[in-house]
Amino acid sequence: MYDTRISRRAALLGAGAVAAWVSNPARAMLQAAAQLPVPAFVDGLVAKMTLAEKAGQLTLMPAAWSGGTATALNPATQGSSFDTQLDEVRQGSITGVFNGNGAEMARRMQTAAMTQSRLKIPLLFAADVIHGHRTIFPVPVGEAASFEPDLAERTARMASYEAAAAGIDWTFAPMVDIARDQRWGRTMEGAGEDVLLGNLIAEARVRGFQGKDLKANDAMLACAKHFAAYGAAEAGLDYSTVDVSERTLREVYLPPFKAALDAGVLSFMASFNEISGVPSTGNEWLMRKLLRDEWGFEGFVVSDYTGDMEMIDHGFAQDLREAAKLAFLAGVDMSMTSGFYRQHLPELVEAGEVPVARVDELVRKVLAMKARLGLFEDPFRRIDAKREKTRSRTKAATALSREAGRKSIVLLKNQGDLLPLPKSGKKIAIIGPFAAGQHDLNGPWVVYGDQANATDLASGVRAAVADKASVTVTPGSGVEEPLAGGIEAAVAAAQAADVVLLAIGESETMSGEAQSRAEIVMPAPQQALAEAVAATGKPIVVVLKNGRALALQGAVANAPAILVTWFLGTETGNAIADVLFGAYSPSARLPCSFPRSPGQQPYYYAHKQTGRPNPSDDKLEPYKAHYRGIPNKALYPFGHGLTYGVIEYTDLQAAPKLAWDGDLSVSVRVSNRGKRAAEEVVQLYIRDRVASVTRPVRELKAFRKLALAPGQSETVTFKLRRDLLLFIGRDDKPTVEPGTFDLWVAPSAEAEGVHTTFELVR
Ligand code: NOJ
To answer: From the CA of 296, how far away is ligand 1's center (Å)?
Structure first.
């Protein structure tokens, strides 16, 4: 039914990950940054504007007429009514609104701007279209698990197709923050812990949202957020302090932003956090020196929500006026939500504290962007109530959601080949709070999708099996609260069945913004449910719902089969059923490591070795770098994921030397020795053994996803060049040093796969 072939483009992207390497800091220097031409009429327009109108162009507000979810997600600090907002439009004191209510709202506002405002500057409509608009795709971290940038591009494209038809010009996505501490709730919104994967997904999503032509009525301006290092919050606590070296910034947290910029992103969002004492919103080094001067970014930067105001609570700005001034002078071009720019900029200019030339420069940029989006030519190009309906939840979008869903599912474990399940002849008990019901399907950060349109697990399973009556559903527990009599009912259901699907994990309110968790474990009532069901001795398939990596313990960790299903969106139940019953052989890989214990956070595979590594995983030695009783390893590391095939890596071929200006061809034979078709993500890791700055124990440098029929073998070839071995040196600049490198081609970041070494020689 579905085309499971990997598109040629995806294969090339994977294979080309070496050649097209984007984590390379030197590449960052070479690429042309996203350009924003300023049409000639813009200067004439700026010359006609009052200071208040200029400040208005730099002011974005939450839509007063929004929807239920939008309002809940963005409680408007100004408490504006729609009529008041229309007045602001007429006065020219607003550049646009975000998270509004579709084409009809946009039409009314744009009509007011175009007919009743003095200068008739079109409004800009923004929204958080994070993983789909009305058709919902997997949460971004799940989609990243596909290791298919091409898929991320296609879902972003489809999201734009739907959302742009509802009047949306600008999405606050992609979030490209690297997440190395799984307590951080926003892990769900990014591509996980790895820089290379993060870069490739960032680029892909920018291309998808923006399309080939930003003027098209199915294209939206993308926004790389949150600049910068938002994911590096201390102890994984959202909004908390970030204190990282410039080297780590440049090596880990900044590359996905640069990759997004190289892919043409024309807006950035400042992050809420401080970096080493300076809030990003007031960080001139970050916003001007790095982003504009060094990277050549020509688009604009928006604050994150009330980020300017929050500098007061950071203890960085004295009062509202100073907050506005600091943000503006630092290089935050547009203020979201607080209204600070329109309140304070005119006065700051008149007092000589902000040069008017700077205001003009930013207004030019915002107007140039509106021109780039085609809004001066046709302010209504994305506003069409009819198109909004016809493009909403099309068959193609639903099919893509199912494809993305099944490609996001990671099979962690499959003892005794419990999976795939036969479609007939087995009584199936689906147990757990996520067994059935129109909840927790879309996942966090959905403004416009409706759970009622999504398929739950029970419906997906029933649609796949021969006899619907063979399936029972028992909740067994609430998500964080026990259910009276739940465990008894669940045990009875398990006893009456041949196999249990244990649908447990996190609700969608447990990850996302502000949803950091101190302990990334299964909530206690669900753990108790799992223990009780496991005690029946029935085979259990854990169907995990999660927005982050979890520390799996007890009966959950010991279940014979575990599927990580994240939040898959519209086609949740069907996508999971595709994998459960073998219509699709799981092909996703973990984009974030599942630790052995919650206390290991932050745990990521590319950690340093330390001066006291434990020599072997089998025996923990005293006075070595590990917690009591736990190896310093993941339970399931980054890159891990099984298929229904049996994959073997052999015949690694690589010359022992890489010449300074040469390349090194690395080839490996990958075979499917199993009886079922499989897709394998072949991963190439290196380790720089000795350098002037210590290097991680492994770094992903390339991967390739390939489809293998039963019995099929393929030789995968990667090309290594010197620039792949660059790192940020002691002077915080990219460098590369000759010496010995380990090289693995392996099925995960901590699997041995096949290994060799080579020398980089000058
Ligand atoms: C705050 C979030 O951090 C950001 O990602 C989002 O785009 C804005 N709110 C607007 O909703």
So the answer is: 25
186 ligand 1 Cβ < 6 A: no
**Residue for token digits 């200029």?**
54
Cβ atoms < 10 Å from Cβ of 216: 17
4 phi-psi bin (left φ>0, alpha ψ -120 to 50, beta other): alpha
In a domain, 664, yes or no: yes
Residues 272/242, Cβ–Cβ less than 8 Å: no
Confidence (pLDDT) at 255? 98
- DSSP of 6-63: PPHHHHHHHHTTTTT--S-HHHHHHSPPPP----HHHHHHHHH--HHHHHHHTEEEE-
Q: Which tens digits make up the pLDDT trace of 90-135?
A: 999 999 999 999 999 999 999 999 999 999 999 999 999 999 999 9
Hey, what are 32's tokens?
Answer: 């042309």
Structure token pair of residue 758: 């080579």
Q: Where are the beta strands (DSSP E) in 583-732?
A: 594-595, 634-636, 647-654, 657-659, 663-672, 678-688, 699-708, 713-721, 727-728
Residues facing 716 on adjacent strands: 668
Catalytic residue among 304, 308, 384, 440: 304
**Are 674 and 736 within one domain?**
yes
**For the chain, what percent of residues have pLDDT higher than 70?**
94
Assigned token pair, 647: 């994959």
pLDDT digits (tens, 9 = 90+) for 467-500: 999 999 999 999 999 999 999 999 999 999 999 9
Q: How many CA atoms lie within 13 A of 538 on its CB side?
A: 27
CA distance linking residue 13 with residue 10, whole number of Å? 5
Same domain, 587 and 686: no
Atom of ligand 1 nearest to the CA of 173: 7
177 Cα: distance to centroid of ligand 1 (angstroms): 13
82, burial (CB in 10 Å: exposed 0-12, middle 13-18, buried 19+): middle
525-569 tens-digit pLDDT: 999 999 999 999 999 999 999 999 999 999 999 999 999 999 999
User: Where is the domain boundary, 600, 624, 655?
Assistant: 600
Residues 594 and 685 in one domain: no
Based on the structure, what is the number of domains in the chain?
Answer: 3
- 581 and 676 in a single domain? The answer is no
Predicted confidence (pLDDT) per residue in 576-592, tens digit: 999 999 999 999 999 99
| Ligand 1 contact via 189 beta carbon (within 6 Å) | no
Q: Is 238 in the pocket of ligand 1 (CB under 6 A)?
A: no
181 is catalytic: no
Residue 370 to residue 90: CA distance in whole angstroms: 18
CATH of the domain at 709: 2.60.40.10
| Residue that finishes a domain, picked among 69, 99, 121 | 121
Please provide residue 732's backbone torsions phi and psi, each rounded to the nearest 5 degrees: 65, 20
Letter string b/e over residues 56-80, b meaning 16 or more CB atoms within 10 A of that residue's CB: bbbbbbbbbbbbebbbebbebeeeb
- What spacing in Å lies between the alpha carbon of 305 and ligand 1's midpoint? 6
- Alpha-carbon radius of gyration of the chain: 26
Please state the atom number of ligand 1 nearest to the C-alpha of residue 172: 7
* DSSP-derived secondary structure letter, 462: H
Ligand 1 atom with the smallest distance to the CA of 73 is 11
Residue 97: give the domain boundaries.
Answer: 58-121
Q: How far apart are CA 391 and CA 407, in angstroms?
A: 24
Closest residue by CA, ligand 1 atom 4: 304
Tell whether 445 and 555 lie within a shared domain: yes
Average pLDDT over residues 264-284: 98
Is the domain of 682 the same as that of 757? yes
- Judge whether 200 lies within some domain: no
Torsion sign over Cα 732, 734, 735, 736: positive
Judge whether 327 lies within some domain: no
What CA–CA distances, in Å, run from 75 to 124, 255, 292, 334?
A: 20, 32, 32, 19
Characterize the bridge pairing of strands 428-431 and 471-474.
parallel
Question: Which pTM value belongs to this model?
Answer: 0.95
